[in-house]
């Protein structure tokens, strides 16, 4: 993580001298990416605050993963990182509880690492207090990259899949269904426009 700070500071130093600099992040730079860090650092220095910063959007890992497994995000959803490097586990657990209570589809970033193996189990236990064990779940690793894997399962069993730092876990809400091995979260069209269905 300190390398990220050094990298962003160096980019700002070069940009402050009038050069054009790019910082490349995977996914979208504004979603768990470098855009926030660059802007935080720019705000700490009069020299850096004069640098014009442009954030170019990308495709988030959750959007890429969702497109592979169907349409799980077509209603309200929450994205929560299970990494406790900068956010205490107590805060993460509260966010999981609130999202589960609110019946959001929940997407988990950084679900498991070599050192942090239990958070995904704890997350499942928290969510199971508010969802059926048969709720559809997708685990997508390396979406649209070499080595892409997809596992469709349910809340009760998904932790048996291969899960790592390049995985995104998408947990359906109470209305999500599994159809032809694709997860769909209805938005409500069938009840609102029943005559058209």
TrEMBL record:
MF term (GO), any: methyltransferase activity
A GO biological process held by the record: methylation
Top-level enzyme category: transferase
Secretion signal, residue range per the UniProt entry: none
Presence of keyword Cytoplasm: no
UniProt pathway annotation: Cofactor biosynthesis; adenosylcobalamin biosynthesis
InterPro entries: 4pyrrol_Mease, 4pyrrol_Methylase_sf, 4pyrrole_Mease_sub1, 4pyrrole_Mease_sub2, Cbl_synth_CobJ/CibH_dom, Precorrin_MeTrfase
UniProt keyword list: Cobalamin biosynthesis, Methyltransferase, S-adenosyl-L-methionine, Transferase
Start and end residues of each Tetrapyrrole methylase domain: 12-157
Known EC number: 2.1.1.272
NCBIfam families, alphabetized: cobJ_cbiH
Keyword Signal in record: no
Protein name as catalogued: Cobalt-precorrin-3 C(17)-methyltransferase
